[in-house]
Automatic annotation (TrEMBL), chain A:
Keyword tRNA processing in record: no
InterPro entries, per the entry: MetI-like, MetI-like_sf, ModB_ABC
Role description: Part of the binding-protein-dependent transport system for molybdenum; probably responsible for the translocation of the substrate across the membrane.
Protein name (record): Molybdenum transport system permease
Subcellular location: Cell membrane
GO MF annotation list: molybdate ion transmembrane transporter activity
Keywords assigned: Cell membrane, Membrane, Molybdenum, Transmembrane, Transmembrane helix, Transport
UniProt superkingdom: Bacteria
Pfam families: BPD_transp_1 (PF00528)
Positions of the ABC transmembrane type-1 domain: 7-211
Membrane topology of this protein: Multi-pass membrane protein
Family per record: Belongs to the binding-protein-dependent transport system permease family. CysTW subfamily.
From TrEMBL, chain B:
Lineage of the species this protein comes from: Bacteria, Pseudomonadati, Bacteroidota, Flavobacteriia, Flavobacteriales
UniProt key word Nucleotide-binding: yes
Keyword Nucleotide-binding attributed: yes
PANTHER family to which the protein is assigned, alphabetical: SPERMIDINE/PUTRESCINE IMPORT ATP-BINDING PROTEIN POTA (PTHR42781), SPERMIDINE_PUTRESCINE IMPORT ATP-BINDING PROTEIN POTA (PTHR42781:SF4)
Domain of life: Bacteria
Residue intervals passing through the bilayer: none
GO molecular function term, any single one: ATP hydrolysis activity
Alphabetical UniProt keywords: ATP-binding, Nucleotide-binding, Transport
Protein name: Molybdenum ABC transporter ATP-binding protein
Coiled coil: none
Domain ABC transporter: from-to ranges: 2-234
Amino acid sequence: MINLNPLWLTAKLALITTVILFVVAIPLSYWLAYSRFRFKAVIEALISLPLVLPPSVLGFYLLIAFSPENSFGKFLADYLDLRLVFTFQGLIIASILYSLPFMVNPILSGFKNLSPALQEASFTLGKSRLTTITKILLPNIRASLFTGIIMTFAHTLGEFGVVLMVGGSIPEETKVVSIAIYEEVEAMNYHNANVYAGILFVFSFVILLAVHLINNKSRKTTLY
Amino acid sequence: MIQFSAYKMLQTADGELPLDVNFTIEKGKFIAVYGNSGAGKTTILRILGGLTAAEQVNIKVDDVTWDDAEKKLHLAVQKRSIGFVFQDFALFPNLTVRENLEFALSKGDSKEIVSELIDLMELQSLQDNKPERLSGGQKQRVALARAIVRRPKILLLDEPLSALDDAMRFKLQDYILKIHQKYELTTIMISHSIAEIFKLSDHVLVIDKGRITKEGTPENVFSEQKISSKFQLTGEIISIKKSDIVYVVQVSSGNTIVKVIATEEEVANYTIGQKVLVASKAFNPIIQILS
């Protein structure tokens, strides 16, 4: 009987990562879209870095940083009692960094596509920044928010390099589906690998199909 | 009363342009701001509204300081008693017409003003529509109504009618006038149309390259420069024909064709397809070659 734990672990990781990133990415994207901070391009480049960097490079640096042998990891371990190497918590942090562009970029381009006059009009009507964001800006970039959520979730499902570096393959802790597939193949258990891979394949396809269906639909209704 | 004084370096396509403007406006007046594109008109409205910062700025409205760069005083946009109508209307696409107006209410405000404005601007039949289903003129009426919901003292209009056809313009001018009078506003409107300025405003500020070059009543400002001077139109020569001892030159401009008499010597310089200026002082039209 195939062990379903890696599937469950993957779903949990993707869900937690998506929720945290959603909360983090909205203020971050808003700030990037509207501020005139001089070194904004540097921040944008850093956020997009995981798009081009080999996951193993990112994973390697995180492994070094999280290691209790080094100052940051030691600080976490000593003061917060937090161990991020080969733990699920570590995987979450790594996934957040790795999937950051998949959440930030759609939301950022959603904000940038809105007329700046919308925000200004809301201000001239006496509304605070928070009210403006929640009542005007976010409802008008719903499609972007949705794209960000789905892309982040889907991307986290497919993580391999980063997870392998930071999490290793500890059953019920860090052994996600992509790692499980790799190990089953190595052990020549093609049947199990096939089941995992098939589930991931179908699931990813369905998610992306949903994105495109919804985007096409919202395009029809919002643009004449 | 509005006392406005600002200095700001503008970044334009032709390099830097200092905007340096001072003016005082009496309460209840209708002011038009006239000038070429890129002269800084919109920036003046935006500085007054608190949407754009300036290096030097001093704004007082009814003896309350809104901006004072020296004392580092800046009243937030939200706290200024203004209604701003943007060039692209800036209606909230996620809200219906009525919701757009209601959004402007503060907590605890009565919704009566919203109904009143919907009636006044004749938006009853459109109130449950989203902005994307409205025409340009309808959007403009909604934007105007929304700007009044908070009962501001000052109404700022950034070329509100430039995107509309003539028939719609005339109608909207009446709405603007109605609102200006009914709500006892001090209104500042950017406009490119001299006819519109004559119809609506008491006072004109002419802005050129960041400075006020002229101000006064529309009659005073425009009379010498535009009214008694020659009429002129630009066009293209489409035919040159000899008729007895003179030549008849046909110039097409827009969708009209003008016939102008010319002598043989003059005709020698003209070619078909040439861009020309036809000007007239009193009776005699003259053709001037442009390029």
